[in-house]
Design brief:
Layout lengths: L33 H12 L9 H4 L18 H20 L3 H14 L1 H6 L3 H8 L3 H8 L6 H9 L16 H5 L5 H28 L2 H6 L14 H12 L10 H6 L27 H9 L22 H9 L7 H17 L5 E7 L11 H4 L4 E5 L5 E6 L10 H10 L7 E2 L8 H8 L1 H11 L12 H4 L1 H11 L3 H12 L5 H8 L3 H12 L5 E2 L9 E2 L4 E2 L8 E2 L26 H12 L3
Antiparallel strand pairs: 1-3, 1-4, 2-3, 5-6, 7-8
Helix pairs in contact: 1-3, 4-10, 6-10, 7-10, 8-10, 15-16, 16-20, 22-23, 23-25, 23-26
Length: 602
């Protein structure tokens, strides 16, 4: 294995395991396999894999059927690097000049990578380059003789984007009708060209919007011009976008790679349409972390309708856990934090206005394995109703928050028990793409309300990570150091181990800014005390642990000490919580205080 072969065979690189090398869990962990990984990534992006033969067949320029999240194979440093390098190569092809057929394929490849454009590839210069493409000029190069530019333009303006097959046979009669003046021997060529131009025009507009950074889209500023390029300004696309669809959601793109890593969409079978609605597609709510994060970042407008339809319908129970996650992953002084606080305040206000029953989970009507547990015990509670869906073979469990006593209401525990039932196979998440029981419990909690108030006053605090006790609760660090005879750094590290759900070595270094030598000194001093134990535990990311029971967790969650479950309710292992990394529900200074009060000597 020291000199890997040119082709490793059919096993996917990110799942192939090496039993004889226990320290090497995945091939991706060894730099010597970077060659094979890069080759596979490039073949996928260039659509040269056997699964992508004939790219026109799968990805039309106006399509939206690309990646909804960055695939695991690409969601790593090598994958991100290859995506950016691939984008540069595609832009170079565009600058070198393409015909209409080549443009179709080029835009189709960007449709294929989907959300990667939003997360990794935003670039004002790229937006300007695509905005500068003259589709009419490329169309005229393909049109039969006898058709003037004016005639072609008039026909193109009447057409909406539509599917067409690779051989030029168009599935709609509208395009042929638009070219009815042409002789039949040339109509197929002209039909195919106009169809591709209509699709490319819409695809280019979407791509320009996706490439344009949020700040440019809001300000209407143009990307820098290049010599020899047509004077096409990105502001034109931004202006159209603002007029037709409103301002884009302020998606915090810098946090999206980590948010994608720390969320997992539930898996299951989509609900089929009822016989009367066979034309409807099967229903499974899509998890869109970027859209949810963008809604939270919108502050007071987090529940406003999105005219573009890209963010889906606003749902009260879609945002609480995303808001808590964003608060935990941003340091004090980050401009996003007041917006998160405003969003939490808006959610709490909506809760007090009696929003009525809210969907927390859905159940399939067609049972492949066995009938699910009865919901009679749940629906006997006045807060719970089970309502059949009108168009699909499923029903929705809905809960009225006004009928609950708070986050500790026994009904919420009963709902979790029901969802965790081993015989419940075919359940579906709430419209947000995740089970909403945990979001409802969080929304009802006083800690969440306090978190919103804490973030609203974030501007009054000095910048820095609140996960570092020396920054957020220095008096506790002094008290801990004095009682246990520890240095300041060792005391701060102990408080992080006491309170936080993820005090990995990497996270601690990020929060504190400690260099390796300083971190090692603090860890060594604390490890020599009686307060912690040193061990090797899978996926822990650290070597020091609190004494007591240890709970394993599956990705995207980290394993955790049992003593922290009361401090971090979202760390409890339930189906309703298992699809997101656990984060605290309230302000970190309060969390440190509770953890210390529960552990310090009396």
């Amino acid at each position: 294995m020291a000199d890997p072969p040119k082709l490793l065979g059919p096993s996917p690189l990110y799942t192939l395991r090496l039993d004889r090398r226990p320290k090497l869990e995945h091939l991706r962990s060894d730099e010597r396999f970077a060659r094979e990984l890069r080759a596979l990534l490039r073949a996928n992006l260039d659509m040269r894999c056997k699964d992508f033969a004939g790219p026109d067949r799968w990805y039309q320029p106006h399509g939206t059927n690309g990646w909804q999240k960055i695939p695991q194979l690409f969601d790593n440093p090598i994958g991100h690097e290859e995506l950016r390098a691939w984008c540069d190569r595609e832009r170079a092809k565009l600058r070198a000049g393409v015909d209409l057929n080549e443009l179709v394929r080029l835009i189709g490849r960007f449709v294929h990578v989907g959300v990667a454009v939003d997360v990794l590839l935003k670039d004002a210069e790229a937006a300007r380059e695509f905005a500068a493409v003259d589709v009419m000029a490329l169309l005229m190069a393909e049109m039969p003789e006898g058709v003037s530019r004016v005639e072609a333009s008039e026909r193109l303006e009447k057409l909406q984007p539509d599917h067409h097959s690779a051989d030029g046979d168009v599935t709609t009669h509208r395009i042929r009708k638009a070219l009815r003046k042409l002789d039949e021997p040339t109509v197929s060529r002209g039909t195919h060209a106009v169809a591709m131009a209509a699709n490319c025009r819409v695809g280019l507009e979407r791509l320009v919007r996706r490439f344009t950074p949020a700040e440019d889209a809001e300000s209407g500023e143009a990307a820098p011009q290049q010599d020899g390029a047509p004077e096409v300004r990105v502001s034109r696309a931004a202006e159209c976008r603002l007029q037709e669809l409103g301002r884009p959601l302020p998606v915090p793109t810098g946090l999206l790679p980590r948010l994608t890593q720390e969320t997992r969409a539930p898996k299951g079978d989509a609900a089929s349409a009822r016989p009367r609605y066979r034309s409807e597609k099967d229903w499974w709510p899509s998890l869109q972390p970027a859209a949810l994060a963008g809604r939270v970042a919108a502050g007071a407008d987090c529940l406003a309708a999105d005219p573009s339809g890209l963010a889906g319908e606003p749902h009260l129970l879609a945002l609480p856990r995303i808001a808590a996650w964003l608060a935990y992953r941003t340091p004090a002084g980050d401009p996003l934090r007041p917006a998160i606080g405003t969003a939490i305040s808006r959610l709490r206000t909506e809760l007090t206005t009696a929003p009525g029953p809210l969907i927390v989970v859905s159940l399939q009507d067609n049972y492949l394995m066995s009938e699910p547990p009865s919901t009679r015990t749940l629906t006997a509670h006045p807060a719970v109703t089970r309502v059949a869906d009108k168009t699909h073979s499923m029903s929705h469990l809905r809960v009225d928050p006004a009928a609950l006593k708070g986050p500790d209401d026994p009904l919420l525990e009963s709902l979790d028990d029901y969802l965790d039932s081993p015989s419940l196979y075919q359940w579906l998440p709430s419209p947000s793409g995740l089970p909403a029981i945990a979001d409802l419990r969080l929304l009802l909690s006083d800690d969440f309300a306090a978190l919103g108030e804490h973030l609203l006053t974030d501007g009054d605090r000095s910048p820095g990570w609140e996960q570092h006790p020396a920054h957020s609760v220095p008096h506790l660090v002094d008290e801990c150091a004095k009682i246990y005879g520890l240095g300041e750094d060792a005391a701060a590290l102990y408080l992080m181990l006491l309170a936080l759900p993820d005090p990995t070595d990497r996270n601690v270094k990020e929060w504190t800014g400690w260099k390796p030598a300083r971190f090692k000194a603090a860890e060594t001093e604390l490890g020599a005390s009686h307060l912690v134990l040193r061990a090797i535990r899978p996926r822990a990311g650290r070597a020091l642990f609190l004494p007591g029971a240890w709970h394993e967790r599956k990705p995207p969650r980290l394993p955790i000490e049992a003593s922290k479950l009361g401090l971090v309710p979202l760390a409890r292992e339930r189906r309703s919580t298992s699809h997101m990394a656990a984060v605290p529900s309230g302000p970190l200074p309060g969390l440190f205080t509770r953890a210390w009060e529960g552990r310090k000597p009396r």
